[in-house]
Amino acid sequence: MSADPFHLGWFYSKGFGPKAWKHPWAGSDVDRFTKPDVPVELARAMERSGFDYLMIEDSSNVPYTYQGSHDAYLKHSVDTPKLDPSILAPFLTAATKHLGIVVTCSTTEYHPFMLARMMNALDHVSDGRIGWNVVTGSNDGGAQNYGRDKQFPHDQRYDMADEFIDVANKLWKSWDEDALVLDLEEGVFADGSKVRPINHEGDFFRSRGPLSAPRSPQGSPVICQAGGSPRGRKWASEHAETIIASASSPQKMKEYRDDVRARAAAAGRDPDSIKMLFLVSPVVDEDRETAVMRAKRQGAEMSANADFQLAALSRSSGIDFSKFDMDEVLGELVSNGHQSSVAGYTGKTVRQLVESNPLTGDGDLFVGTADDVAGAMDETMQEVGGDGFLIVNSYFPRRYVTEICDGLVPELQKRGLTRKKYEFDTFRENLMAY
Ligand SMILES: Cc1cc2nc3c(=O)[nH]c(=O)nc-3n(C[C@H](O)[C@H](O)[C@H](O)COP(=O)(O)O)c2cc1C
Prior knowledge:
40% helix; alpha/beta; globular; binds flavin mononucleotide; TIM Barrel; single chain; 15 helices
């Protein structure tokens, strides 16, 4: 017996920014990271292998949490620099026909009208293939770029995101599907009775509406969410259509998924209308020994560059990790940033955190030949129950794209685990097809 067919996505981490700039196989054009070249090639490879979506991560500041300075962030290119992902998205949709493109935008950095308008435009020009990764911000440096001293308190950010999406949804519905008439005989472009102001006056936002453009092919972008704290899970269970989830073992994946599905059912939603994709960083090679050796080398590189890891942990948590001793066992940490990630640090030494992959922590579960890894994914999905995986590898060169899209995925397809062809035109239809 094998798992039911599942979905595949790619977490394009480090946003629209540099990837494998100092690693072997990085290529000779690493200075072109400000151009869409590499992500366009990635999107094409993903589409030929039937992926659901490419998610462009983002944050909009040069961090300075670690050692109170931006030096380590700039020296190692940790979470910076990043260009605006909404500018990259149309290049990716223009280069593909079926792949979904998910853009990260923070509800504390946009006004709902501006966000709703941008997503509407992206959905139009992509013929219905846009998603929005709804984040709420985590680092005070980000808030300071937008005129505040610090981030709003963690749970309040989700309250604000509740209202934000309510306003955005109203705007996306402010033009009826048939409002655009284009009646040449009567000389009517659009029917005013089918376009309505929303007159929203809430706790955090005001907007009159209607949106300044007709309804888009999907009506609204596919809603994606990432935060795994209890408040984050509540938000996701009420609004998300796909969740990008970080969990370090099949058992933890299952617990996370079961919890969100139960919350969704309690909120009156069909749990199957939420596709939870788990972050994994497979290492695939022609034989198992080589793959294991490469995975070990990657781990050694991570521990040799502790500054890089510590700077990243500091940014996402808002806690300066330079103040801890490497062998200090961490107690409970208080964070106004990524609380779900920080909760997992308790009881570990800083060294252990540095040596593990901070996003997946999946050890060597997905290391081996394409056949090995496809088998491990199959078994994991059988244990978890669904809905798929999201590839993440911050420093991938083009070679990694080929290893996944032309090496691993054909093995998954052979086993009937992932799609060979797209059935529908829009992102949401393909995502919800199974
Ligand atoms: C896997 C993953 C990816 C995330 N990607 C982003 C991102 O691209 N940009 C961002 O601002 N926040 C990102 N976040 C942060 C979350 O969206 C959320 O705001 C944060 O984790 C706090 O939520 P939590 O405390 O509920 O985990 C990510 C979180 C996780 C776990």
